[in-house]
Amino acid sequence: MAETLSAPQAERKKIIFSGIQPTGVFTLGNYIGAIRNWGKLQEDYRCVYCVVDLHAITVRQDPAALRRHTLEAYALLMACGIDPEKSILFIQSHNPHHAECAWVLNCCTQFGELSRMTQFKDKAARYADNINAGLFTYPVLMAADILLYQADLVPVGVDQKQHLELARDVAGRFNNAFGKTFVLPDGYIPKADEGARIMSLQDPTRKMSKSDPNPKGFVAILDEPDVIMKKFRSAVTDSEARVAYAPGKDGINNLMSIYSVFTGKSFPVIEEEFAGKGYGDFKTAVGEAVAETLRPIQERYKELMGDKAYLEECYRRGAQQAMAISGRTLEKVYKRTGFIPSGR
Ligand code: TYM
After folding, report:
1. What is the mean pLDDT of residues 117-139?
2. Three-class SS of residue 118?
3. pLDDT tops 60 at residue 7
4. Is the CB of 261 under 6 A from ligand 1?
């Protein structure tokens, strides 16, 4: 894999990079907005995927929990179909080039542009007692993640769009100052009604998030079927009781998007299927479709977690493959910046 990525630009397959934070079990939002696409893309692209533990510590983490969540996230990505034989799958802190490149890019990023990042503003409000410098410069580390692999496409949910635009701006600025070094990445973001932003089941005006203090707001990929059913049955909807996609019906629109993604049915087909039926029947059907899709993922996850030696073999190899690629970019970056080659 590392070998083939170095093929000349003209004949190379497009490169994909994406990452996910190991801050808890992934939600249905992570799965629909991003991970579901990661597996599909590995057939046609050269894919590099990463469990971004360096990003996770911008919010205070318990060390033992972070270690556990990181391994779980790695196994869960594999259970969701990321094949370490087809893609490079690694843990961010195992590759020091990310932090090194981020430093150089920090010096090409303006305080003003980082101040405009909505995720920073949200998190600074949520974690007011720990507004650390890492939280502020988080998007620069994300830019380094992407740019080190010369990624063409970045499959993410819509909440990451602003960070992606920043990565493009920083890459363009570096290229202008020092000569073309980075590929400018594009987003690969699902359409609005195809899961770009899955909403909380309890407050459908807010994004579904794994850090939601109310567990009824999100479905975790490892939730048991009866828990999934309960969460969908108690999902907040309007009082109209008609299954139809319409502006302002945030709760039902969200459930329709989820059902559509899991069954492949279009909105008109769903509306017809539930014509004359209440929300209760619909919520049950959504819960069943989700539980059914997640069942094989959960089974595979359990198998993988039972074989820690295999996981270790995969993430160690992944880091080596990743470093072979990112090392070439970092060398170029250092040279262009004006650093004396260390010969390492
Ligand atoms: P993270 O860990 O918050 O989320 C991982 C992916 O899941 C998507 N996502 C959603 N999509 C739809 N609906 C939702 N409710 C929802 N919640 C999360 C996110 O958009 C994301 O694609 N900063 C990133 C991680 C990262 C990264 C990168 C991504 C670090 N470096 C480089 C791409 C490229 C993050 O916090 O994602």
Report:
1. 95
2. helix
3. no
4. no
The preferred substitution site among 35, 51, 160 for testing ligand 1, maximizing ligand atoms within 8 Å of CB, is: 160
* 33 within ligand 1 shell (Cβ under 6 A): yes
DSSP alpha helix (H) spans, 58-110: 63-79, 97-106
Position 75 scores a pLDDT of 98
User: Backbone phi, then psi, for 199, in 5-degree steps?
Assistant: -100, 160
Residues 6+ apart with CB under 8 A from 264: none
Question: How far is Cα 57 from Cα 52, in angstroms, rounded to an integer?
Answer: 10
Half-sphere exposure of 297 (CA within 13 A, CB side): 28
Percent of the chain whose pLDDT exceeds 70: 97
- Ligand 1 centre to CA of 169 (Å) is 19
Mean pLDDT of 152-164: 96
Q: Which ligand 1 atom sits nearest the alpha carbon of residue 27? A: 17
Over the range 278-294, which residues count as b (16 or more CB within 10 Å of their CB) and which as e? ebeebbebbbbbbbebb
Q: CA distances (Å), 97 to each of 20, 105, 206, 276, in order? A: 18, 12, 35, 58
Tell me the C-alpha distance between 276 and 182, whole Å. Answer: 55
CB 327 within 8 A of CB 98: no
Q: Please provide the DSSP assignment of 123-190 as one string.
A: HHHHTTT---HHHHHHHHHHHHHHHHTT-SEEE--GGGHHHHHHHHHHHHHHHHHH-S-SPPPEEE--
- Which residue puts its alpha carbon closest to atom 19 of ligand 1? 157
CA distance 225 to 217: 16
Residues noted as catalytic: 123, 207, 210
153-155 sheet: strands from edge to edge:
88-91, 46-51, 15-20, 153-155, 186-188
Q: Is 58 in the pocket of ligand 1 (CB under 6 A)?
A: no
Structure-block tokens of residue 294: 């997640």
- Residue 6: pLDDT over 70: no
Which helix (H) or strand (E) segment holds residue 19: the answer is: strand 15-20
Tokens of 152: 């063409």
